[in-house]
Amino acid sequence: MKKSSIKIQGKTIPVISLNTVVVGSGAASLSCADHLYNLGVTDMAIVTERVGGGTSNNTGSDKQTYYKLSVYGTEGDCPHEMAKSLYNGGSMHGDLALIESVLSAQGFYRLVNIGVPFPHNRLGGFVGYKTDHDPRQRATSCGPWTSYEMVQKLLVQIKRNNITVYDEYEVIGIIADKKRACGIVALDKNKLSSPTFGLTLFHAENVVFGCGGPGGIYKTSVYPVVHTGAIGLALEVGAKAVNLTESQYGLASIKFRWNVSGTYQQVIPRYISTDANGGDEKEFLNPYFKTMGKLATDVFLKGYQWPFDPRKIQDYGSSLVDVLVYIETVVKGRRVCMDFRKNPRGGDGLEPFRFDQLEPEAYQYLEKSNALFGTPIERLKKMNPMAIDLYKKHNINIEKEPLEVAVCAQHNNGGLLGDIWWESNIRHLFPIGEVNGSHGVYRPGGSALNSGQVGSLRAAQRIAHVYGKATLSQSAFKTCAAKKVDALFAALVDLKKTAKQSTVGPFRAEFQQRMTDAGSHIRDISACEKAIGAAYEQLRQVSAMTVRHISEIPEAMKNRHLVLSHVAYLEAVREYLRAGGGSRGSYMVMDKNGVPVLPGMLEEWKCKPEDPSFRDTMLETVWNSATGSFDNAFTPRRPVPDEESWFENTWGDFVKGKVFE
Known about the structure:
By secondary structure, this protein is of the alpha+beta class. It has a domain at 249-410: Flavocytochrome C3, Chain A, domain 1 (Alpha-Beta Complex), CATH 3.90.700. Helix content is 34%, strand content 20%. It has 19 helices and 22 strands. Strands 1, 2, 3, 6, 7, 8, 9 and 17 form an eight-stranded mixed sheet that branches. Strands 12-11-15-14-13 form a five-stranded antiparallel sheet. A hairpin with a 2-residue loop joins β1 (2-8) and β2. α3 packs across α4 (94-102) and α16 (504-518) runs antiparallel to α17.
């Protein structure tokens, strides 16, 4: 690592030159840095907005899942079987599915070896369970904080190896030239008041980009408030995105952002709605169900059918609950809560809750869990007391108060396009973790954590074996960086002209509301068309933002890439709807000629069925700087490779380094 400086617009800007800069400090980024170190790439550093500030360290559920190859039990499994499970979810490249399968056990056992406390039995077997979209029992968990545990143990490795971390640095630009990345621009947030605003350049042969999902573009979101995402930084330099249409949505608490999946639903809490002030309490689900047994079973099923899924709406499926919550909160403007203090009560033609009314799947689960008794909170104490403690740590006592919830954006299955080494079409740029769009439509629960660990290894291997030597001189870097820095510096100078009123918050609130209205789990082509017109107009107004104090500058600079991101997502949604795509994944497409959500009720709620042919395509989205808009194209997905490898040949190719080409 070398430190120098360059002059731009008469200002001296520090330059840090190194082989690889790793952006972000989530589980994928930390893992990649650790892999790089172990592979001999020590000339690197991590640059992060805040250590511990990302999604990995701040999210979970009642039992946060990690998905990997089955490694215990009598049920057979193999990488090709797991690859089929990933691939069959639709719109996922088969070679990526196989890679994620082949390397899943290696990634898992590495986490075990550094101390992540995945549970095993007395024989040392890591027993699994089934998760959503999982035909076997490949899932495991450390409890509510699986990804947090991963981050904490990986941070130990980073500290042990003395890997340099630039903390409190806001990345505001990627430097790229001739379709290759060569560094980043960041703000040292402790030097915002300096003449250069703390601008710092990282001259790097490789940029590992682990910035997470697009949490900052939604109003109704379970992404932690501290996490906004930064995919727009890559989009603006021409990095291709894929499947931006495919995000996951589900019920989550909103005072403290947390998924209310698993045991939170399996104990069958009472769902109520109130007016804005907490009055006029109603058990709003009752009128839509014929029996209390079906209502209670649907609530139970939300535990492991947690993501909103349009296939589970008809015939009183569990995702009907999500639709009814949406109608109550968005259409009627009421508040919805889960009340663990009482069992669901009767009314509107329904009898009070009784265990013997439950359908067999729910009844047998509670019976095996010795939980056929009491109230929801008493059952939760029996089945998962950690789920209660989690909320208490955030000053919410669900033993004494209802828990306010909504259907929230939770995870982006799409993201930036990457090849089999997780490398972008912008060479030397490696999107890893959630920002990499490898996940497809119906991914098994927990597969994203596995993907992040696998992608971090693949990127590190490619860098270590192919991109380990410097190819871009300091002078060439300066030429490449000058135009980017000029534009960013001008924006910073403009923001420094502080105003009487800040527009940073209102500017963000505008596109967040637009995404939640038109680009979330309920989609309509006319609403999307209208939203895109407004989105481009707001994009054109980005330079008009004002701040009251220099401390707001980092958030203002975030808005610059977030507003671009939300345009990209809306453009992809529109392209899919224009092409005739229907309801799939975790969103419902409204269609006046479609299938009724609930015959006899909600007559205006009709959804367009999925067209399965779209599962064999990938929707690619790329920024066209010449037109100032996004281009979209459907491309065929690659099948799962079915090639045999002879050991002696593989050995020879590995020794010669051919496998990394």
